[in-house]
Design goal:
By secondary structure, the protein is of the alpha/beta class. 45% of the residues lie in helices and 18% in strands.
């Protein structure tokens, strides 16, 4: 019995340490985040269509960052709460709009004062959670029985198909290790009493304005810009900078000699670059 109690204490301490490290990471990224992470019109419309928010709905955006999508969605209707662990991110979010209630917190703990919500959104954030099961359990506890959770993420299987692997293999291996497998996500949702009703693949489009990891799929020159790399956690915090420098030199050479197109062609695939998961409570 004492062994179990000690294990729980160690697990809680580790989870807290991970949370502090990740919050510090995004406090750092948040300083220049808005330079490269705009609200993309296509992604926004996808979220509007999938969430189907009504005017009387209570909604929450977990891992809202600087609030680009939260503010845009709030303008479409519903009452919105934005949750993020980073104080720097939230300060930038609150400067954009005062119609959203901003809270510092995590998926595992965003406070007890949050009402039941009809819609929950998690955009490119679940790979940063220290405890998927605890995060989904907390969301499920606050989600209305008829509510909906929409997750936008990627999977390690999808990431193996990014041409970035040809130039930054170590960074991509670390990034894929951090990204939870789809089955692991489904298992954590199941434990929380949630089920994936639909999985919708998303492919990068050439005019993408939100410059996350694979946004340069059709514009490899994008990665030469250090401000863009600073807004991508894989480059700014997971990568060996010597590998990044070497990979960028090789990428530039391949673009100039024309071999990049053949390398990128070898990574063409079906099944989407990212994935929307539309989830409901079990009945």
């Amino acid at each position: 019995m004492h062994g179990l109690a000690n294990f729980r204490q160690v697990h809680q301490a580790y989870a807290k340490w991970v949370y502090i490290c990740r919050m510090a990471r995004y406090d750092h990224i948040g300083k220049n985040y808005n330079e490269t992470r705009s609200c993309d019109p296509v992604l926004l419309q996808n979220l509007i269509d999938l969430l189907q928010v009504k005017e009387n709905h209570q909604c929450i955006d977990i891992g809202c960052g600087t609030g680009n999508y939260t503010c845009a969605l709030a303008n479409q209707g519903g009452s919105w709460i934005g949750v993020d662990p980073s104080e720097v991110m939230l300060s930038k979010a609150s400067a954009k709009c005062n119609t959203v209630h901003w809270l510092q917190g995590t998926a595992e703990d965003f406070g007890n004062d949050v009402p039941l919500f009809d819609r929950a959104l998690c955009t490119l954030t679940i790979h940063h959670w220290p405890d998927l099961k605890a995060g989904f359990a907390n969301i499920s506890k606050h989600l209305h029985p008829e509510g909906k959770l929409v997750i936008f993420t990627s999977t390690p299987h999808q990431m193996k198909q990014y041409w970035l692997n040809a130039y930054f293999p170590k960074m991509m291996r670390v990034s894929m290790k951090q990204m939870p497998e789809l089955e692991r996500v489904k298992e954590a949702l199941d434990v929380a009493g949630l089920i994936v009703e639909q999985a919708v693949p998303y492919d990068i489009h050439p005019e993408l304005e939100d410059l996350f990891l694979y946004s340069g799929k059709f514009a490899p020159e994008m990665y030469f810009d250090p401000s863009i790399r600073r807004g991508i956690s894989s480059f700014s915090h997971l990568a060996d900078q010597r590998e990044v420098e070497h990979g960028l030199r090789q990428l530039r050479a391949d673009i100039e000699n024309g071999s990049f197109l053949e390398i990128a062609r070898k990574f063409r695939h079906h099944g989407g670059d990212y994935l929307y998961l539309i989830c409901h409570k079990k009945t």
